[in-house]
Specification:
Number of strands: 28
Shape: elongated
Strand content: 35-45%
Strand order of the largest sheet: 2-3-4-8-7-6-5
Distance between the termini: 104 Å
Largest sheet: 7 strands, mixed, barrel
Radius of gyration: 35 Å
Bound molecules: 2-acetamido-2-deoxy-beta-D-glucopyranose
Number of domains: 3
Number of helices: 4
Oligomer: single chain
Length: about 450
């Protein structure tokens, strides 16, 4: 899938701040696709203008310049002008601040046909999908074109060349947001054994009380898809009725929050590695149905330990030291080694001399790995600090385990000296005896 990184800028209208996004209209292109054996998509540059998206209280007056449509309307321009009459888009101000934070915005528009509608009937519908790179908010908007029932003037309106839809006097395609499915946390990390709330919600213009709201959550992972929850809920005078299907223990969504607050969030309890994946929240209400994606990443930091508690060189033999990383997720882990002798100012990297074991996968999906190092006494005098440094996604900072090379045990030294002395005494006495015998002869 292509994603187009777009540039976002903003202008401030008198009633509120306008947000202007560069988008692509995605259209299924005929012709060329046939040869390739699949549908080809055309991307047509377009603009999405949110009028008065957020109030401009506190904004500096010099900045208050409303969005200016082109001076002469052009049939080739594709400007979707959005009015938000009754829908409050949650966290919409994030779009306004994205510019200041230099966040990129991905914006794509495509044609949409509501349930039961004719393909070319009016009003026309579009899906606008807007995502802030790096998280924040993700929106799937259903846009419905606005048309004047009675033509006030005799002149025919300008028709947009690509869509063949009438443009407003200022050359924009006037639309209103009639349905939106959003996530304020489109990507989330959670540890094994923990619980998580996957954020998803919807808003609808003119929702009919008592109307069914259908919510479906699916997980998609490594090419496999599975429905894990399905709710059909409706508000009656006394309570909220629901038909519920759940295919994972510890999974829930609240039917009353769904119909009363438009809250479609999913709770997953006691997470396992296999819960990781792309979750698709699909909300259907009345003639509209659309979806939002939430990524769940499972993480588990490694437990890190050295194979030895102490390191003493008794003789000139090298010694082996291992650094074990236990039960972490995901797979990528980095192990580095350093040594710093008392005489050295900076630690020296030993990573090149180390060797890695292969990854071991446990039945719960976590991994373990060890890194081995051979240390020589000449290079590592007593007092040398050996560090194993591990970095992993689930560790907030680099994690160090260290060990200091000890002096050989003084007791051992004492007995070694005694032994050496004893040997010397025996040897010398032999020599003297030999010498004495020689003298006698
Ligand atoms: C409908 O009419 C009003 C008033 O003349 C005008 O301001 C508006 O742009 C028109 N809308 C469209 C979609 O042409
Ligand atoms: C849904 O409800 C939960 C629990 O009250 C809350 O934490 C979450 O922010 C709500 N999400 C939406 C989209 O309203």
């Amino acid at each position: 899938m292509f994603t187009i990184l777009v540039f976002l800028w903003m202008v401030y209208g008198l009633e509120g701040a306008d947000v202007v996004l560069s988008c692509s209209l995605i259209e299924e292109g005929g012709g060329m696709g046939g040869m390739m054996g699949g549908a080809m998509f055309k991307r047509i540059p377009s603009t999405l203008v949110f009028k008065d998206l957020v109030g401009n209280d506190g904004l500096s007056p010099e900045l208050v310049t409303p969005y200016n449509p082109p001076e002469t309307p052009n049939a080739d321009d594709l400007i979707f002008e959005l009015t938000l009459p009754s829908i409050q888009i949650p966290n919409a101000d994030l779009l306004l601040h994205a510019d200041c934070n230099e966040q990129e915005v991905v914006c794509e528009i495509s044609r949409y046909v509501p349930r039961g509608a004719e393909l070319d009937s009016l009003p026309a519908h579009f899906i606008g999908s807007v995502q802030l790179e790096g998280g924040g908010i993700s929106l799937t908007l259903v846009l419905q074109t606005l048309h004047n029932e009675t033509t006030q003037s005799d002149t025919q309106p300008l028709m947009q060349s690509n869509l063949n839809l009438p443009l407003s006097q200022s050359g924009t395609l006037l639309t209103e947001v009639v349905f939106v499915v959003f996530s304020r946390v489109p990507s989330i990390m959670a540890p094994i054994g923990g619980d998580v709330l996957l954020d998803c919600g919807f808003r609808q213009k003119n929702s009919i009380p008592g109307q069914d709201v259908a919510l479906e959550w699916r997980i998609q992972h490594r090419g496999n898809g599975r429905k894990i929850l399905d709710i059909k809920a409706r508000e009656t005078e006394t309570d909220v009725g629901q038909d519920l299907f759940v295919d994972r223990e510890g999974t829930s969504a609240e039917a009353d929050l769904l119909v009363r607050d438009g809250n479609a969030s999913l709770t997953l309890k006691r997470l396992k590695v296999i819960d990781e994946g792309t979750y698709i929240c699909t909300v259907g209400s009345g003639e509209f149905q659309t979806q939002q994606i939430v990524q769940l990443h499972i993480t588990q930091p490694p437990r890190i330990a050295l194979s030895e508690e102490k390191l003493v060189f008794q003789d000139s033999k090298p010694q082996k030291l291992s650094c074990h990383c236990h039960r972490y997720y995901p797979l990528d882990v980095q192990v580095e080694w350093f040594s710093q002798a008392p005489s050295e100012e900076e630690p020296v990297s030993l990573s090149e001399e180390s060797s890695l074991s292969s990854h071991q996968q446990h039945s719960d999906g976590t991994f373990s790995l060890s890194s081995h190092l051979t240390l020589r006494p000449d290079k590592n005098p007593p007092g040398t600090v050996i560090t194993c440094r591990v970095s992993h996604l689930a560790l907030e900072t680099l994690s160090d385990v260290t060990l200091t090379v000890d002096k050989p045990d003084p007791n051992t030294v004492f007995w070694t000296v005694v032994l050496m002395l004893a040997i010397s005494v025996v040897f010398l006495s032999q020599v003297f005896r030999g010498a004495g015998a020689g003298a006698e002869n």
